[in-house]
Amino acid sequence: MQSFSEVTRRADAFFMKASRVHDAARRVARALDELGIPYAIAGALAANAHGHVRTTGDVDLLLTPEGLAAFKARWSGRGWVDKFPGSKGMRDVVDDVPIDVLLTGDFPGDGLSKPVAFPSPSVAERSEDGYAVLPLRTLMELKIASGMTAPHRPRDLDDAIQLIRANDLPRDWPIDPYVGDRYRELWALAQIHDDE
């Protein structure tokens, strides 16, 4: 069990973008850039890039199946290892950080077919941290679709609420119709602020 001071030290490092997670994200991004493999950072680090700052213990990485195969062919066992034999996910061995791989064409949340799927990483945009991240609209659609279809992932819906607040998004923001009704529900919740 970590001490309170250790937890706060790690949180401070995270918020200063000097955490093991940030180092792992930068390292994998550099390796992918050097190989010319399109990628996008997703998940909490992408949410951070879009103004909702919260900690995380892993890097969510969007790749095509071909990109994943090319990355593993070059780097498997050389800084990154499979989480388990045959896994698409990896672990950064330098900082001992999990790298969760999302594949283009797969579906968020319950993994079942739906109108919202993980896109090509070519949609990515460069963050101020220098790595490619999912655009805000794409991230929101994936987060909401995940939270809608996977009850064990309520954090995705909270991330959507916090992203609405952080970006002052309008109620009628154009978003995929599959998640449109839930977006508007979350938008209404985002307008409620606890008394301070």
Search tags:
single chain, 196 residues, alpha+beta, Beta Polymerase, domain 2, two-stranded antiparallel sheet, globular
Notes on the protein architecture:
The protein is an alpha+beta fold and 196 residues long. The strands form two sheets. The protein has a five-stranded mixed beta sheet with strand order 1-2-5-4-3. A two-stranded antiparallel sheet has the order 6-7. β3 (80-82) and β4 form a beta hairpin. α5 runs antiparallel to α6 and α5 (136-149) crosses α7. The chain has helices spanning 4-15, 20-35, 43-49, 65-75, 136-149, 154-167, 177-190; strands spanning 40-42, 59-63, 80-82, 90-92, 97-103, 125-126, 132-133. The chain has one domain (21-190): Beta Polymerase, domain 2, CATH 3.30.460.40.
Write the topology of this structure.
Layout: H1 4-15, H2 20-35, E1 40-42, H3 43-49, E2 59-63, H4 65-75, E3 80-82, E4 90-92, E5 97-103, E6 125-126, E7 132-133, H5 136-149, H6 154-167, H7 177-190
Parallel strand pairs: 2-5
Antiparallel strand pairs: 1-2, 3-4, 4-5, 6-7
Number of helices: 7
CA-based shape: globular
State the end-to-end CA separation: 32 Å
Structural class: alpha+beta
Largest sheet: 5 strands, mixed
Order of helices and strands: HHEHEHEEEEEHHH
Helix content: 40-55%
User: Can you name the CATH architecture?
Assistant: 2-Layer Sandwich
Summarize model confidence as the mean pLDDT: 93
The total beta strand count reads 7
Q: Strand sequence of the main sheet, in spatial order? A: 1-2-5-4-3
| CATH fold label | Beta Polymerase, domain 2
CATH class: Alpha Beta
Beta strand %: 5-15%
Poorly predicted spans = none
Structural domain tally: 1
